[in-house]
Automatic annotation (TrEMBL):
Transmembrane segments: 9-33, 71-90, 97-115, 121-137
Source organism of this protein record: Qipengyuania aquimaris
Highest taxon, organism lineage: Bacteria
Membrane as UniProt keyword: yes
Alphabetical UniProt keywords: Membrane, Transmembrane, Transmembrane helix
Protein name: Uncharacterized protein
């Protein structure tokens, strides 16, 4: 399984997780800052309204009810975890894949919390496959 194609695919997966994490931090951080009154971008207003509506509609069936700020902080935390994990995986550190797996567990926890399955489940499925590929191909370098 460890051939040039799979190594390139695993490298691209690491870079993809890194970019995705940075975007999650940036957008999530912006939304969080706006929800706290620190920013005002019209582009963020509808996303915050949608998030607020989703949280309100889901509050009765959720295991843990998030506030808008709590939910957005969780999204930012997920971004931090996957970004650091991707950096570790790119550097072939054993903790890199573990942090990517933690990010995937945090993602799965949101589905479990809201007792729902939606099309975003495919991001999770693809993420699990890519994490397994990274774990199989980008093994830690010996010290």
């Amino acid at each position: 399984m460890d051939n040039g194609f799979t190594r390139a695919l695993a490298l691209l997966a690491c870079i993809g997780f890194l970019v995705f994490g940075i975007i999650r931090i940036g957008v999530g951080g912006g939304l969080l800052a706006q929800s706290m009154g620190m920013l005002h971008y019209s582009e963020f207003a509808s996303a915050i309204a949608d998030t607020s509506e989703f949280l309100a509609m889901s509050s009765e069936r959720s295991l843990f009810a998030f506030s808008v700020q709590g939910y957005l902080a969780y999204i930012v935390a997920m971004g931090v975890v996957v970004t650091i994990g991707a950096i570790g995986a790119l550097r072939r550190k054993s903790w890199g894949v573990k942090l990517i797996a933690l990010y995937l567990a945090m993602h799965a926890a949101l589905f479990a919390n809201y007792l729902t399955i939606n099309p975003k489940i495919w991001y999770l499925v693809v993420g699990i496959v890519l994490c397994a590929l990274i774990a199989a191909v980008r093994k830690p370098k010996p010290a």
